[in-house]
Amino acid sequence: MSFLAFFWICDIGFQKSINTTVDAASRANLETVERVLANTAPKGREAVIAELRDLDKLWANGALFEVADANGEWIFRSNGFLHPRTPVPNASENAVSFFTTNLDFNQYRIALAATRLNGEIFKIYAAVPTEPFDQALDRFRLIEQEALPPLVLIATLLGYWLSGKSLAPVGEIIRTAEMIGVDNLSHRLEVPKPHDELRRLTETLNAMLGRIENSFQRITQFTADASHDLRTPVAVMRATAEIALRKQRTQTEYEEALSRILQTSVETSAMLENLLLIARADAGAAGLEMHPVDLKTHIRRAQEHGAILAATKSLSFTSQLPESEVLVKGDAIAIDRLLMILVDNAVKYTPPGGRCEIALTTSEAEAHISVKDSGVGIDTEDLESIFERFYRADETRSREISGAGLGLAIARWIANVHGGSITAESVIGTGSVFRVKLPALAAV
Ligand code: ADP
Questions:
Q1: pTM for this prediction
Q2: Which residue, 36, 95, 122, 146, is most buried by CB atoms nearer than 10 A?
Q3: Are the C-beta atoms of 408 and 389 separated by less than 8 Å?
Q4: Ligand 1 center to residue 350 CA distance, Å?
Q5: What is the DSSP letter of 63?
């Protein structure tokens, strides 16, 4: 297509330059005749005719001319100058006009002008054959016709080769991408050297693979941790039952075995419930129902729950509440769960005789909940990780206290889905404080 356009433009250009050249040639001839006339006119008509005849003989390249008087009667006419077959424009004294016509079956370009010499007007027709120029144009068109097919073929082959070369990296990306599966998620696509769109695409795909690998690792880790943590209590229950049944036991021994099994199964079902909640949250199907809730009511309930737990360990569990209600938009069950996790932990990780407190304050458009204890505290190194699933700080110490390391992960998820946040501050041996910020609704 572009070749056709190129040849078409060349053709037009060539034709234009031929027209200019032909016009220039006929004008030059006309001026020569004019000069001869000017030199010989004063010598009389006979002298003029003799000079013009000599000039005609001199022009061997097919150029013709005619000189006529004011009435159109010709004074001199080259051999072969027959009358033009097209209407002849009027000769003007001041300008040269051009026209194309056939003289004796050959095409000519004729320059026409009128000139006044010795008070007499002469009309001059200077004709140049256009055939040599037309032949040149024909030759050019023939070359065009012959050159076009091989050029198109070469261009097609070149285009095919170039596109194959530029698409080769895409083929490589497809081959590698097809190879990548769950078994080799760490595999990455080879990044092409040139800084182009393909390189950006490869880097984007690699980054996406990185994210998928990360999520996949987290899911695998979660499944492994969950099955490990579930196996332990099941093994404890089974071993307790097997040992109890191995021989005849006293009433007290049976009661002890049964209550251990009961305790472990309660903990296991709590853990299963947490796992289920996390799985639902990950799937985006936690089914939360957001309504305006009064945090004061929920915190009062959490404090009462904490106080009952604290009583079994000789702890105090107090609360600090504002006068007015504090409304947030949230799911009542999820908010209760968040508060219970923090309250349970405060009691769990505070030795007998300690103090725990839950408080609610507001600032600007936020509700601030803090759960403070005078417990064992958390190492600075662990503070960042305690909100991760299955993370339990200080393994040996935590082992003595029941738990699966899921509570704070759930607490953080609840705070986040409510548009809030949760943070922890702690000093080992002194105590910890967990702070939850939630966007508050304007009181009505
Ligand atoms: P769990 O309590 O079941 O182990 P959590 O996710 O609730 O799991 O807590 C994660 C870890 O954070 C706990 O194992 C414990 O090491 C630490 N932690 C949480 N709350 C407290 C607290 N109030 N005082 C000291 N350590 C705490």
A1: 0.58
A2: 122
A3: no
A4: 11
A5: -
Locate the ligand 1 atom nearest the alpha carbon of residue 391 and give its number: 10
Question: Can you point out the beta strands (E) in 27-150?
Answer: 64-69, 74-77, 97-103, 106-117, 120-129
pLDDT band at 87 (very low <50, low <70, confident <90, very high): low
Structural domain harbouring 103: 2-137
Same domain, 310 and 398: yes
Question: Per residue in 247-301, pLDDT tens?
Answer: 999 999 999 999 999 999 998 898 888 888 888 887 777 788 899 999 999 999 9
Tokens 């024909």 map to which residue? 138
Is 434's pLDDT higher than 60? yes
Using the atom order of ligand 1, give the atom closest to the CA of residue 376: 25
Return the ligand 1 atom nearest residue 393 CA. 16
If asked whether residues 248 and 310 sit together in one domain, one would say: no
Write the CA distances from 30 to 17, 21, 55, 89, 189, integer angstroms: 20, 14, 12, 16, 78
Instruction: Supply the residue whose CA is at minimum distance from atom 13 of ligand 1.
Output: 392
Under DSSP, the state recorded for 131 is H
Q: How many domains does the chain have?
A: 3
Q: Which of 317, 345, 358, 412 to mutate to test the pocket of ligand 1 (most atoms within 8 A of CB)?
A: 345
Residues 414 and 297 in one domain: yes
State the CATH number of the domain containing residue 21.
3.30.450.20
What residues pair up with 367 in beta bridges, in sequence order?
Answer: 362, 438
CA gap 243, 179 in Å, rounded: 52
Q: Within 10 Å of residue 303's Cβ, how many Cβ atoms?
A: 23
395, pLDDT greater than 70 = no
Q: Are residues 360 and 226 in the same domain?
A: no
